[in-house]
Structure formats: C-alpha cells, structure tokens
C-alpha cells in the first residue's frame, strides 16, 4: 500500500514598511495611498501576465514582465516577490524551462501572499 502525502505549501512574506513611509513622506497621504493602490493592481496584473506567458511559451514577454514586476515589487517593499520575479528572469536567461515552471508557481504563491500583506499595509494609517 502506498501513502500519498498532501503538502501544504505556504510562503512567508512581509512588506518593508519603510517603503510605504518613504512614499507617504514624498507624496503625502492621499497621493501615496493612490500610488500604492495602483501599484498593487499593477503587480496583480503582471503576475497574471506571467502565468499567461508561460502557458503560451512566450518567454521573452515573460522575461520582460518579470523584470518589471521585480522593479515594482522592490519599490513597494515586497522584497520576497522581487526576489522570486528575478529568479524567473534567471530561469528564462539560462534557459531552464522546468525550473521556470516551478519558479512561476512559486511566484504566484508569493505574489498572492505579498498582495494580501500590501493591502493590509496600505489600509493602515501611515
């Protein structure tokens, strides 16, 4: 008899709060809130675009989108997501398609957790 184990994969992420504070100090409360909200939407759209690019085997678009995602994530203080997005770029550059599939799935998990953390952080008074 063989046993099947179900692995619960979760990613621990956090938002670098100083990034939020820098935006607020430079733009003010209302403008920084608007910028953060638009950036969160942009991050979500880029994650979806990366998934779609992988399904279509459009590696150049995936690479470009992942590079942009890494930059936006870094600015927002979503450092774990920025690292995983950069890992996706590295997989395209090698090229290592098997690793790219694994990293893209991780990017989605980290992205979901990061977006939740960013939304929670954006809702807090700065």
Provide an overview of this structure.
With 126 residues, this protein is mainly α. It has one domain: Four Helix Bundle (Hemerythrin (Met), subunit A) (Up-down Bundle), CATH 1.20.120. Helices cover 78% and strands 0% of the residues. Helix 1 (17-27) crosses helix 2, helix 2 packs antiparallel against helix 3 (59-76) and helix 2 packs antiparallel against helix 5 (97-123). The protein is globular, with a radius of gyration of 16 Å. The mean pLDDT is 84.
Furnish the topology, listing elements before pairings.
Elements: H1 17-27, H2 29-55, H3 59-76, H4 79-93, H5 97-123
Entry summary:
Helix content is 78%, strand content 0%.
Keywords:
single chain, about 130 residues, mainly alpha, Four Helix Bundle (Hemerythrin (Met), subunit A), about 0% strand, globular
CATH architecture grouping: Up-down Bundle
> Mean of the pLDDT scores?
84
Uncertain segments: none
Give the count of structural domains: 1
Let me know the number of strands.
Answer: 0
**Rg of Cα set:** 16 Å
Report the span from N to C terminus.
56 Å
